[in-house]
Each structure stands twice: as C-alpha cells, then as structure tokens.
Amino acid sequence: MADKTIKVCLTNRGEDSETPxxxxxxxxxxxxxxxxxxxxxxxxxxxxxxxxDVIVVAPxxxxxxxxxxxxxWKQIGTRIEEDGGRWAMIIDYSPHEAKDDGFAALAKAxxxxxxxxxxxxxxxxxxxxxxxxxxxxxxTADAVMASLGAAELPCELTQIHPAPAPPPKKxxxxxxxxxxxxxxxxxxxASR
Length: 192
Prior knowledge:
four-stranded antiparallel beta sheet, Alpha-Beta Plaits, seven-stranded mixed beta sheet
C-alpha cells in the first residue's frame, strides 16, 4: 500500500470542483490510471465524500478526479468505495475578543470530542469565521454543539449545516374556564 498524500479533484459533472488532500492507497483495479484514495480533508463543497472516506479517482484533464456524476444524496454511497463513518457539519464562530479569533481553541475542543475540524476562513470584522467538521455517524449535531458549548470557547458558535431544529413552539396557555353560571331561581313567596 502506498503511503503518499496527493491532491485529488472532487466535482459534480464539472461543477463545484475542489481539490482536497487524500492518502494514496494504490491502484484501483479495473480503472485505467485510477487510484484508491482516502480523503484527509473535510471538503467545503461536497458533504460526501468527507474525511476518512475511500473513493476511486481516475485521470481527467491531467488530474485524478472523483465525479459525483449527478447522483442524488440518497444514492451517494454508490459513489463511495468505503464509508469512513463520518458526516459533514458546518459552524460559524465569532470571537469574543479581537486578539484571539478562537479557531485554535475550537480545533482543540473538536479534537477532544473526536471531531475533525478544518477552517474555511477566519473572522474578518463583523463577519464570522467558518469551520467544517467531520463528525462520527453516531453523534448528532446537538451533541456536537453541546460538547463545544461546554468547552467554554473564546467565541460564539452558530450551527449552519445541518440547519438547527427550530425551537419548540410554546403551547398557548390553557384557557381559563368561566365559572358555571348559577341557575336563577324564582324567589319563594311567603305563604299566607
């Protein structure tokens, strides 16, 4: 098995192309010039494949390329040779103080939770920074946000993808029942 890191291209019929790093696992049988590779980045434009997934890339325009080829999300597993057991999550982070953008602390907290964290961009002025995460399949977005929230990071976090569930609707206060109307009775006449 080769132990070399190479750049590969991920695309979807020529759109949304990006070039993450991947570990070269050797030749892909039956694919001329193809290689089996394990992604070692969290791609920004593709939710799958992601960090740890094994895919087959083939030469195209001088670059080893994986093409989603228009496959729908529910069938994306058919384009991945071996699922690495992670899903992609996106969060924004806004520092509490200008001197520390918070990314180093965020990355450390992710590592302690076995979440792979990669920065897309740093905060600039009022614009938040963005991080892409590769989360184990058995961990929910709520669990990730709770774990990172407990880490007392020097930044505020906002979940971008998957979109956070809306807060539960408050149930309207029960209507107060009107007291039962008293039955009107005719006054009794005094007997004579």
